[in-house]
Amino acid sequence: MKKQYSLLLAGITILSIITFIEADAGPATVPDKPDDFKADDISPTKIELSWNPPDDDGGSPIIGYKIEYWVVEEGGTFKSLVTDTGNVNTYSHTGLQTGNTYIYQIFSINVEGFSDDPSQAVAKVTSSSAPPEDIPPNPITDLTATDISQTIILVSWDKPAANNGPAVTGYKIERKTTGSFTTLVADTGDALTTYTNSGLTTGTTYTYKVYAINSVGLSNSTGEASATPTSSTIPPLSVSSDLPLYSSGATVIITGFIRDLSPYYEQ
């Protein structure tokens, strides 16, 4: 009897675990939209579309993608390009009218249906449209460094001009105080053109270089920018034009700093 009783308890435990796992998984849902959707004009009459699978497939494998397009110059609405690509990550749209701009939207598909929202991309075919070249990006421009607190410097720049190479995917940032530059950020991993460098030493001068990154490599550097956080450095203050300019004095408290603005107010 003891052996039978023990076996029965074990069976109940296993059944409970299996039931719990199945309940936790939940029913499948529609997937998220595809990631990194791109449209590249690779000839005067052809656009190459590419994308990555969605981060969340809704609990059911992706079986294909639906693509629609809209010709800006013709007006109207989106038209169907392909109802189901199958499980691929590229599609070529051919026979296009040179000079037209094409906007695309793509939906992920699983057994539950289409993603609720599409990813979008745009390209214009021109007489000079050609496949991307295997070249690194152009250099960034207008690099600046601004001390915005006693321990923080804001580094900013403008994105590089297009050169028919692969798209810029991030930026490398180098920094030095003395001697040679060292890597501060190997790859920002996004298209943002600002970086906040915190935890700095008050009174020390920091110098920066920034390089653009694409799938081929790094751009050249176009110069340096420096800033020195000091004990008198205060974050930039933005005062609303709606403030009444009739009081005899005013104190504004922003992020822990107190400024007396009475000299700027009408008496």
TrEMBL record:
<feature type="domain" description="Fibronectin type-III">
    <location>
        <begin position="33"/>
        <end position="132"/>
    </location>
</feature>
<dbReference type="InterPro" id="IPR050964">
    <property type="entry name" value="Striated_Muscle_Regulatory"/>
</dbReference>
<dbReference type="InterPro" id="IPR013783">
    <property type="entry name" value="Ig-like_fold"/>
</dbReference>
<dbReference type="InterPro" id="IPR003961">
    <property type="entry name" value="FN3_dom"/>
</dbReference>
<keyword id="KW-0677">Repeat</keyword>
<dbReference type="Pfam" id="PF00041">
    <property type="entry name" value="fn3"/>
</dbReference>
<protein>
    <recommendedName>
        <fullName>Fibronectin type-III domain-containing protein</fullName>
    </recommendedName>
</protein>
<dbReference type="InterPro" id="IPR036116">
    <property type="entry name" value="FN3_sf"/>
</dbReference>
<feature type="domain" description="Fibronectin type-III">
    <location>
        <begin position="139"/>
        <end position="236"/>
    </location>
</feature>
